[in-house]
Design a protein that fits this description.
binds zinc ion, binds adenosine-5'-diphosphate, alpha/beta, 219 residues, single chain, 8 strands
Length: 219
């Protein structure tokens, strides 16, 4: 299945995508991760977008559509693709539809992870850190590593925090979500692809809701 995880920053998209990759062998395509990789390797795209990302605004449609197109051209995801953090605008949604069609692929479901509580989102991103080796996602309070300083997944000992994961930048990111991305909820509802789940609660409980939504879409 090819699915989109849709939700505001901190909703738990990356966390749930990692679980689906581990359990179902799907491939996660996160434009945020691709842009951060472009930045740290100093490519021209990376240099162009660094300031925009740090401010919390969206980078141009052209850049992110190009990144996704590259992956689809490379033929990734025969066991299914999870689009995480893409599309984020109506123009990106149209472009994704056209790209998938050109590859003979379909979009099976869009899972909206709803968290109607901005304070919860701010708390989530403020405590977020990831493994520098495998990308596993943690939280200071809600999901610490089992052994302090060691990644549960790969045993790595280096962790990263994002410069944009702070309360001030979150205001801009949330505004971008409500203004530019939330119209996609109506767009995919109209296409009959939308499944909305509650994003609050234990990570495993949310995972069960994601699985339920996938099963419903597959039926
Ligand atoms: P997104 O990709 O949507 O921005 P993440 O998956 O990175 O969200 O999660 C944001 C932060 O919240 C991370 O630190 C993660 O460990 C934590 N988190 C994810 N899901 C939950 C949950 N259900 N309850 C509490 N914290 C969570
Ligand atoms: P989160 O997991 O918190 O939702 P991401 O890692 O997906 O955040 O994105 C981080 C930043 O990268 C965004 O604030 C934005 O600047 C840029 N970005 C990522 N994906 C897109 C996209 N599809 N369109 C525009 N900008 C994007
Ligand atoms: Zn790791």
């Amino acid at each position: 299945m090819n699915i989109i995880l849709l939700g505001p920053p901190g909703a738990g998209k990356g966390t749930q995508a990692h679980k689906l990759v581990a359990e179902k062998g799907m491939v996660q395509l996160s434009t945020g991760d691709m842009l951060r990789a472009a930045r740290s390797s100093g490519t021209s795209i990376g240099n162009q977008v660094a300031e925009i990302m740090d401010s919390g605004s969206l980078v141009t449609d052209e850049i992110v559509i190009g990144l996704i197109e590259e992956q689809l051209d490379a033929g990734v995801g025969s066991n299914g693709i999870i689009f995480d953090g893409f599309p984020r605008t109506l123009a990106q949604a149209d472009a994704l539809g056209a790209l998938l069609k050109a590859k003979g692929k379909r979009l099976d479901a869009v899972i909206e992870m709803r968290i109607a509580n901005d304070e919860e989102l701010v708390q989530r991103v403020s405590g977020r850190f990831t493994c520098g080796n495998c990308g596993a996602v943690y939280h200071d309070q809600t999901k610490p590593t089992k052994v302090e300083g060691t990644c549960d997944q790969c045993g790595g000992t280096e962790f990263k925090r994002r410069p944009d994961d702070n309360a001030e930048t979150m205001r801009t990111r949330l505004l971008a979500y409500y203004k530019d991305t939330s119209p996609l909820i109506g767009y995919y509802y109209a296409e009959g692809k939308l499944q909305t789940i509650d994003g609050l609660g234990e990570i495993d409980d949310v995972a069960a809701r994601v699985s339920g939504a996938l099963a419903a879409a597959d039926a």
